[in-house]
Amino acid sequence: MESFIEEMKRYLGFGPEDVALLRQLGPRMEKYLPELAERFYSQIPHHPNAQRVFTGGEAQIARLKQTLQHWARGLFTGTYDEAYAEDRFQIGYRHVLVGLEQKYVISAMGIVRTFLSECLLLEFPASDERLRYSRSLSKVLDLDLNLMCESYMHATMQGLRALNLQLERANQDLAEASRTKDEFLAHISHELRTPLNSILGFTKLILDGLCQTPEEERELLRDVFASAQHLLSLVNDILDIGRIEAGRMSLHLEEIHPRALFDSTLPLVAIQAVEKGLTLRDETKQMALPLIRADEVRLRQVLLNLLTNAVKYTPAGHVALRARLEEPSGMLRIEVEDTGIGIPPELREVVFHKYIQLSGGQSRRSGGTGLGLAISRRLVELMGGRIGIEDGPEGRGTCVWLTVPLAGTAAAQAEYSDREPHRRASIGE
Ligand code: ADP
Known about the structure:
The protein is α+β, with helices and mostly antiparallel strands. It contains 15 helices and nine strands. It folds into three domains: about 5-170, Globins (Globin-like), CATH 1.10.490; about 175-245, Helix Hairpins, CATH 1.10.287; about 255-420, 2-Layer Sandwich (Heat Shock Protein 90), CATH 3.30.565. The strands form three sheets. It has a five-stranded mixed beta sheet with strand order 3-5-6-8-7. Strands 1-9 form a two-stranded antiparallel sheet. Adenosine-5'-diphosphate binds near residues 342, 343, 357 and 369.
């Protein structure tokens, strides 16, 4: 296949006689080259973008002037082969890399062309002789410019292709995110409808006077209350993830005693555990627990979420709460352990992504939004701790652990001073 430079030479009618003429011309042009460089530099700085490439310190300009003369010499003695083309390509690539646009090179070539025509006029007063040289000079300048433009095009295309690839990937990510969100919306709408339907159904029964005894009526009202609570917790999760995503989640960090936290949280899952025949163990009972620095309401929310999950995903056995001082972080490590269905090791990170519920029916059947762990992670991190999942007891079930800074420690102080003066912490601050 014909190479680009050969094709160009053919188009321009650039042949051996031109090469011969240019070689004759070279020595006669030599004396004009320093002036060519001066002319070039006196004109080029008018282009703001070109200044970045063609200007600099004195030494830099002197070097660039030498390069320009070297290039002009090459026009007359060039071999005009593949290597010559490659050289022009490389220069073009460098220009594209530094952001020099094609129009500056075209106008720079215009400067060179005008100047060299003036030189020819001085050098060859006889017009027929001048014309012969002028034609060959014109062709070689066109050849050179074509090579440069081609390299610009090539480099730009390469850049575009890379950009396209990036865009394609971003598009795929967006499509995936949008699909997950759609699925979430479908799922959450279903989730919201379940307690709403219960509330409507039960209240209708009461309003229609279908309860035989006041006790029956109270029983139904209890169901209405439980469904309303469930509905509220779903809506709260949705609001929380929205706040977190918008960077507007505020925390109130203070010194709290883990004992008070545990004692007020465990009873909230006790009934569910008993109903499923599970043992709920507080293994921190006999421990002396250190003060921690956290947002009590939010830490309770996290703990409750972990305990609720543990009960939800455990058909038989026990759910246990444990705590210990963790080395070397010096933080309090809290663990919620269960003997339930477990989470495969490869999915232990994924479950912290929002909207994720493991397939296999159990999670979907168990209700929930797939937001609990995502919210928990952001809350724990905002309090300066970490959260993760390990094997449960004897390799079965699940152990979800989290760490919280102790009150008065550097970790807690760092968190504290970050959030001053309002003593409010906010994601995205
Ligand atoms: P959900 O509202 O679905 O419980 P979470 O974010 O709290 O949302 O949990 C995400 C998923 O992680 C759950 O759907 C479930 O598949 C899995 N999971 C969470 N905790 C446990 C656990 N203790 N045992 C087994 N699987 C769990």
